[in-house]
């Protein structure tokens, strides 16, 4: 990949995809997210040697939201092992919206179908060990600081508080999990941890680095330091394909074909095996909760650079 | 109705139905309820002149549980009017278990289908007005004290606390209602009120009096004092037919044919229009949550005394 | 009930309810039904002595559609007994639309929840015995001829053919029942029988007589001849309360309070125990499939004549 | 890949996986399939140069069943284009069993979520063009004959007839699709075509060749002849990952990680991009409908040869 040419192509793709920002809306159910300028779009690419290309609003901070589901899954798997984790959360895509509660009742046993829907991610948060919320949060934050190379990575308190105040649906999911015995830890503490994960603040550049670490099977590009076991990285990339883009994952797999995870703040983290990590920020969302322009941008890049894994 | 003969028939019916107590189990999900002797069975009949006949364990105290759904609905209707109440809770039977959450998501708008399922009763609890939980509870308690003629009617604290500690599913329902905008009041305060209603302690004799007041269209038998508007009494009896026996209501309507409301402590309150109220206590439940022997007993009485309204 | 005054009140109620015909639409999914004038409204009352009062379009023929579900249930119960019938179809209201297929899959065993939804009525049609469709149809037709006193009662061939050609959803339901083992007879023959039942042509006056026979516990008013066992009549009236008006049955029970069954051709058959049968014809339907003006009309009459059974 | 060593490893893997045949059962709902010996297990690998390795029952003929869903999708896409096809069938995994009908009603518009569940495959069969069933079948058969290199490939008439006689659930699905307007063609003809596709008879060796053509992006290994457009091959492989193993697709993606499609006759077709096609035959199925020993075998091979795409 020729860096200069790739830079130009990235800028052109961001420009082309920007036209689509008008087709979406910023997330309204978390008041703090609703304040963001819906026309923003930024992207960054992190290459195996750590080089970062970027275009557009690639330095604007935003919160991870559902992208954090990958991070907490990594920590939960490392702390508890696959057996423990997958006894409490499944591996199947659902076809339902990310905040749906139906299958918690209809599927027996009542465990969430996968860790990428809210119910599953709350169950995963419940498995993160530590002495109190702060310490449990640190387990995730310290992983992310290593992956991004930014030791100052922290939480956006306004978003965290906004989400915590308005998270009635997530509370319903958590209490249902409690009732089913899936959630062993305290409900409010677990939700508090979940909201904090969601509110970790990053930029598209940092997200590109997260993607690159996964693309490199769990190794920090420049240093070669392993921060995620290879097996865990593989599991994450698989979930990103089957469930990463909410109930548009199947469509995204066909139309774009890159393992990716989106969040309702407008971020998308993509991992092209061995080749690159991509971070996108575009807060205007489609009705399923994915960045409208971000998806379009990844589609353009996937075609331009032939990134599809299939 | 000849009193003496009726007394004998009631005693015989209780004796015959007692054989069925072995086919059920006491409610296990509320620890305090699980301690009760499952072989008990008692019944009382209250006639229009206030006469009370009884047999078996008719003086054993038990908690109203879901029977309280009728009482809180009465208060909510009196305080807010039909329009306000039925904009927030429907009038349709569901076919689903009493604690099901599925239809809260699938039905648009997301309001509970009726006030006899848990979700609907929690929504109704949210409409009971008053300054704090104590005052809101008093609105229900004072109605019940009038209806039963027992000014000392109060809450079983052990059951209340037991239920409050273990009510994860009800919390899930309440938070879902909060998310949908159906529940305007504070979730924990509303649940607290709901648990207290459920824990009001009565005997089969007192429940028979509750039934008689409804059977008399809202009037206290002896005094003739109106304590419930006629229209509200009619609405309650209708709900008792269409939704009173959980998702066995349709079957009960055909096999027995009396407006009735059951609770998981084993109580059933039945109202035979103009003729009598019946109170039953039999803690062994079938899988849908109704007193096994209690249902059988009402079936026997309905045949013996030709009580079916259809 | 004073006849003359009642006649005037009926005429006034029809006139008042006529204003509501504009709020509904004729059934469009059966092409032949879509041709009907949506502004029509007629009603007839049949009293215990056989006297018939009527107003509006009470002599306009229309097809029974779902009202026939009561008739085929009567025949099935008489031919097979309660045990056989209710092993194959339940007694519970559903909360779902009349043509819903969901609960056939979610409820175990896969039997229809009640005989008033399409799936249940198709299952019931499968239980009607006879040598070929003609003979099985005659079992229903001859009952109806007795009940209405009209020996010429027959099928509207155009509606029957129209329905048979366009009944894809009903075929889906029937095949699902076949797959579940609920339907033992040939699918196409059973559907053919079902479509013929639905296409039996009546007037509001005849429907009023049907209602009166049920109101009289199964006896022809003038002659005193018993044509339906009392127990079967009671079962029918109970289903009319809990499931007779599709998934608006609960609402109708509260707002009107009369056992009633509606059909998508715009008919409603109501049975006021011991007092009267009411036949209504108003083809403009609400979104749940009930006659808009017909429901309003029954609400007016119920208030005027105090007909509610609760 | 060293051929000799690979042959030994394949034989060892088949031997090891054979122990798992006892944990499953042959499909019972199609009588003809129920006659098969559940202890069989065979596998074949087709390499890019056309070399075929095999072990166990690799020459035993069996019917494609759901593996044919990939073949009919290829034909439908080639004949109609992506736009036409995906307007009638979605791209999302469902989390529900392959023969579930629920989402056809709950999802609006009522189109099947993907072409790998029965409803979706029936919709796809409806899009295959031709003059009559024979010609429509030939479109699929001639593709398969090219892909396998076996010009005599044909239908197992006994299985076809057995399936056609007992396919009540598929008829329910097809009629629901007809009702929703998804299926434009005649229901019985479309089902007939669908049953014939399912009954195409192959061996594990032939299935390995099918997989290799997809692995090679649509090109016949030896000749280099393109028989499937690259884009269509990519789409198929993506569906194989997200929905190929029924509602165990997500689990298979994580545990094995190879694009694969299974059928209830016990076959699995796997395509390892650029590297190999794998055909498996093991008729003992798990409860979700996948070959128990076949899945285990692929898991062993994926680890041995590092085949996972993630």
From TrEMBL, chains A, B, C, D:
Question: GO terms for molecular function, please?
Answer: glutaminase activity
Keyword annotations from UniProtKB, A to Z: Acetylation, Hydrolase
Recorded hits in SUPFAM superfamilies, A to Z, give: beta-lactamase/transpeptidase-like (SSF56601)
Q: What reaction does this enzyme carry out catalytically?
A: L-glutamine + H2O = L-glutamate + NH4(+)
Pfam annotation, one family: Glutaminase
Gene3D superfamilies xref list: DD-peptidase/beta-lactamase superfamily
Top-level EC class: hydrolase
Chain ranges passing through the membrane: none
Output the PANTHER family linked to this UniProt entry.
GLUTAMINASE (PTHR12544:SF29)
The family line of this record is:
Belongs to the glutaminase family.
Listed name of the protein: Glutaminase
């Amino acid at each position: 990949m020729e860096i200069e040419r790739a830079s130009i192509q990235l800028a052109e793709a961001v420009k082309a995809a920007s036209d689509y920002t008008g087709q979406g809306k910023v997330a309204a159910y978390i008041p703090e997210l609703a304040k963001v300028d819906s026309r923003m779009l930024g992207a960054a690419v992190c290459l195996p040697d750590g080089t970062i290309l970027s275009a557009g609003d690639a330095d604007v901070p935003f919160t991870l939201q559902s992208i954090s589901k990958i991070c907490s899954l990594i920590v939960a798997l490392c702390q508890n092992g696959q057996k423990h984790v997958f006894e409490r959360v499944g591996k199947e895509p659902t076809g339902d919206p990310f905040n749906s509660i139906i299958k918690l009742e209809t599927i027996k046993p009542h465990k969430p179908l996968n860790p990428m829907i809210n119910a599953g991610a709350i169950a995963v948060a419940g498995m993160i060990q530590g002495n109190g919320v702060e310490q449990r949060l640190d387990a995730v934050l310290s992983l992310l600081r290593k992956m991004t190379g930014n030791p100052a990575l922290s939480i956006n308190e306004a978003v965290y508080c906004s989400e915590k105040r308005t998270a009635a649906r997530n509370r319903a999911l958590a209490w249902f999990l409690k009732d089913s015995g899936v959630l062993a830890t305290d409900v409010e503490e677990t939700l508090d941890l979940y909201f904090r994960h969601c509110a970790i603040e990053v930029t598209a550049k940092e997200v590109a680095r997260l993607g690159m670490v996964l693309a490199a099977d769990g190794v920090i590009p420049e240093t070669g330091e392993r921060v995620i076991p290879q097996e865990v990285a593989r599991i994450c990339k698989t979930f990103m394909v089957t469930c990463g883009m909410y109930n548009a994952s199947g469509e995204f797999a066909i139309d774009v074909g890159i393992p990716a995870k989106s969040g309702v703040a407008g971020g998308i983290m993509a991992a092209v095996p061995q080749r690159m990590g991509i971070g996108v920020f575009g807060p205007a969302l489609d009705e399923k909760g994915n960045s409208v322009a971000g998806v379009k941008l990844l589609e353009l890049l996937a075609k331009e650079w032939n990134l599809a894994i299939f």
